[in-house]
Amino acid sequence: MGGGRMRLFLFRYSKANRSIFLEEDRVKAETERAKAPVDFTTFHNLLYEKKHYLKAIKACIDFKSKYPDIELVPEAEFFSSVPKDIKETSMSKDSAHDLMLKRLNFELHQVVPTSRGQALADEYGIKFFETSAKTNLNAEQVFFSIPQTIRISKPDPDKGSSTVTERSACCGS
């Protein structure tokens, strides 16, 4: 091969190489142009989805419970005094939601139905009060009714009989 032929071969080889690179760039650009609407749509969908999730999270945070005044026993007290049937439920021990459900269940376990309380009051011949130590509902009335009930049911030592006498004022006045 002569020097001229070699240059011609090298020239053709360089030209073919350049045309391959140019064709590759053209195909890449065409692919990018075809992908742009798809990428924009995907991006738009992701933004919409993000906005939807943020709206749902805000709705959960702003949610006002039907029972905002429920006070549960502190966790330490709950774990020390909870019955086994509540403690050994199939709920996982590390979930905050499951713990809340267990504590609510414990609260239900501690509540005495009104009918049972009324029956006990009738059985012992005392006035029935619906009470709550947490909210201080009727706690004072119950406290002051206990001495009255004791005084009413205690026999009068002066009369020597075991009849029940009722006094009208506090402290025997």
Automatic annotation (TrEMBL):
The keyword Nucleus applies. The keyword Nucleus applies. Residues 154-173 are annotated as: Disordered. Keywords: Nucleus. GO terms for molecular function: GTP binding; GTPase activity; mRNA binding. It holds the Pfam family FmiP_Thoc5. InterPro entries: P-loop_NTPase, THO_Thoc5. It is found in: Nucleus. GO terms for biological process: mRNA export from nucleus. GO terms for cellular component: THO complex part of transcription export complex. Belongs to the THOC5 family. PANTHER family: FMS INTERACTING PROTEIN (PTHR13375), THO COMPLEX SUBUNIT 5 HOMOLOG (PTHR13375:SF3). This is Uncharacterized protein. It comes from Coptis chinensis.
